[in-house]
Amino acid sequence: MPVGLTLGAAFRPEMAFAHQNATFSENYRNLYLNQVGQITDDWAMKMEEIWTGPDEFNFTYADQTVAFAHANGLKVRGHTLVWELLVPAWMKKGQFADAQIDKLVQTYVHNVVRHFKDKFPGTVVCWDVINEPVDNDGKSLRKEFWFQHLGENYLEKVLRWTHEADPDALLFINEYGIEEPGPKQDYLFELARTLKRKGVPLHGIGFQCHFSIHEEFQRENLEQALDRFIGAGLNVQVTELDVRINDDKKGITPEKLKTQARIFREVAEVLPCALSAMFLADHVGAHRRGKLHTERQVAETEN
Question: Which residues, 6 or more positions from 116, have their beta carbon under 8 angstroms from its beta carbon?
Answer without folding.
Answer: 62, 66, 76, 78, 123, 124
